[in-house]
Amino acid sequence: MKRSPKHTKQKIVDAAAALFDSQGFDRTTVRQIACAADVNVALISYYFKHKQGLLEAIMMEYYELLFARMDACKSCDEQGRMDVQLYRMIEAHIRFQSEMNQTTRLIQRELSVESMLGREVMSTYLTRLKHYFVSVLEEGMETGEFELTDVDHVIICLFAIAGFPYTYPQIVREVFYIEPLEEQFIQQTVQQVYTVVRQILTPAASSR
């Protein structure tokens, strides 16, 4: 049965993501990716030009899927309360990282290395992700739901806490003996991240 171009491209992307994650981007060859995806090496060049193009495709797909989740949080908010929307966005972000844990770990590792691609991802995708939370926090401050505070600091704390289990899952497993992909852990993480953020945004209310 002949594969569709879309199916073939996705197989290549999935194979590349798995290999990049397990043995690193630099140590992975195009031939290894072609073998894992069961395709001709020439197809990788045809669809993605080079190995760097594959990594770019993986990152782009990852963030576009994440942004679709974030957009859904905004569209389903009928109450207009920023604390409700904030909770939904935190939950969507954490659940997405859990579901896409392999790619999450890969991307965070690549972003830790100084590179042109890393700078492009930060200026384009991470800036956009930051804006989702900035808009909610600033609107909450305007309506009086949240106290005035340093928005950037809040988001840095949020990203740090929410991302740690899926950037360093081996630490969670080997040091704390907890499985970060279990539903109970995900639920606890969502609630704890939200609680920490709310304590920053409404310290007086949280201390009562």
Automatic annotation (TrEMBL):
GO terms for molecular function: DNA-binding transcription factor activity; transcription cis-regulatory region binding. Keywords: DNA-binding. It comes from the Bacteria. It holds the Pfam family TetR_C_24. InterPro entries: Homeodomain-like_sf (IPR009057), HTH-type_TetR-like_transc_reg (IPR050109), HTH_TetR (IPR001647), KstR2_TetR_C (IPR041490), Tet_transcr_reg_TetR-rel_C_sf (IPR036271). This is Putative HTH-type transcriptional regulator YttP. The lineage of its organism: Bacteria, Bacillati, Bacillota, Bacilli, Bacillales.
